[in-house]
Design goal:
The chain is of the alpha+beta class. It folds into two domains: 165 residues, Aminopeptidase (3-Layer(aba) Sandwich), CATH 3.40.630; 151 residues, Aminopeptidase, CATH 3.40.630. It contains eleven helices and 13 strands. The strands form two sheets. Strands 1-2-3-4-5-13-6 form a seven-stranded mixed β-sheet, with helices on both faces. It has a six-stranded mixed β-sheet with strand order 7-12-11-10-9-8.
Length: 341
């Protein structure tokens, strides 16, 4: 297995299709690891989360002529001020990250990767390999720990946030029957409030490329009505959201959905339709329509839509917001793994 260091996504653009094909066979087949998302994230340094002085450290591996693995990393000082190599996408706006390699060759890939990162003279001098947002069931974690023990490095693993998800049944009634009785009645009551009102409620999903920018702006304007999200929406973060939406739309995996009342957008969910799952990335709603509980209604509409389209899961991704559990979310966690030579 031969390893190569690259400093720009443009240098490996010829690997784009191979990268995404390899991702399909990897342990963490998630939208945040697609070539296009990774490139878009790096173009804004995570919506301004990381300084422009950060350096891209893309590592690819080949077995003969075959591309077999990738470690999308970047070099910067971590939150403790230590020179670190971190996964492209860390920390705040990419929910799930990992190394990219099929499980059967992951041990050899990680062994060779760590050798390469400690011997290559082209790699910036780092003190810690600081890997955020890896799902707790990823085989990457056990392999990293084993490699650390062999090398007598320090390995630490800390839980970060829960990431609830819903395994989807065959029909919406079966889904409702599977959640808490009180919450089932509450969801039905809110849906009934819409159907019994004079307003016409419906689900609108962005499909027209000419409408995409306007719809993303509408979504951002809704987000801005939440005081907790207003400070988050810097110019760089707005650019990140637009680039992410454009990337996902062009890739065929954007699901930007709105609950409308008489044609007026009352709530929005920015999601990814990827790997036969719906991944809820962010949500917002118009406060003028709060009497209709538009966020809850849209979520119920989307879960029903996902079931009708025979998706396997509805993934709420990171965060322990109460509504996720009221809708039947089951916990799994993401972790942070650090290796210090």
């Amino acid at each position: 297995m031969h390893f190569h260091h690259h400093t720009a996504f443009e240098d490996i653009k010829h690997l784009r299709d191979d990268w995404d094909h390899l991702l399909q066979k990897s342990a963490s087949h998630v939208p945040f690891l697609t070539f296009d998302y990774q490139q878009a994230w790096w173009s804004t340094h995570g919506g301004g989360e990381w300084p422009e002085s950060s350096q891209l450290v893309l590592i690819t591996a080949n077995d003969g002529d075959q591309f077999v693995g990738a470690a999308p990393l970047f070099f910067s000082k971590n939150i403790l001020g230590k020179p670190a190599l971190m996964l492209v996408g860390a920390i705040e706006v990419s929910d799930f990250l990992d190394l990219i390699a099929p499980p059967e060759i992951l041990p050899d890939f990680i062994h060779g990767l760590l050798d390469f990162l400690t011997t290559s003279k082209d790699i910036p001098q780092w003190e810690v390999l600081d890997l955020y947002n890896i799902l707790e069931d990823s085989p990457t974690l056990d392999i990293l720990q084993q490699e650390a023990e062999i090398r007598q490095w320090t390995y630490q693993q800390k839980p970060l946030q829960p990431s609830p998800y819903i395994p989807l049944p065959d029909d919406f009634d079966a889904y409702l029957a599977g959640i808490d009785k009180k919450q089932r009645h509450e969801i039905r009551r809110k849906l009934r409030n819409v159907t019994q009102s004079l307003a016409e409620g419906s689900l609108y999903i962005t499909e027209d490329p000419g409408q995409l920018e306007s719809d993303v702006n509408t979504f951002i304007n809704m987000m801005e009505q939440d005081p907790n999200k207003r400070a988050f929406l810097t110019d760089a973060m707005r650019e990140h959201l637009h680039r992410t939406a454009q990337t996902a739309f062009e890739g065929g995996w954007l699901n930007l959905a709105f609950f409308t009342l008489d044609g007026n957008k009352a709530a929005a969910n920015f999601s990814f339709l990827f790997n036969n799952r719906l991944w809820l990335y962010n949500s917002a709603w118009e406060w003028d329509y709060r009497e209709f509980s538009p966020g809850w209604v849209l979520l119920a509409y989307l879960i029903e839509w996902a079931i009708n389209n025979q998706l396997d899961e509805f993934d709420f991704m990171r965060g322990d917001e109460p509504y996720k559990y009221k809708f039947g979310g089951i916990d799994r966690r993401i972790v942070r793994a650090t290796l210090t030579p």
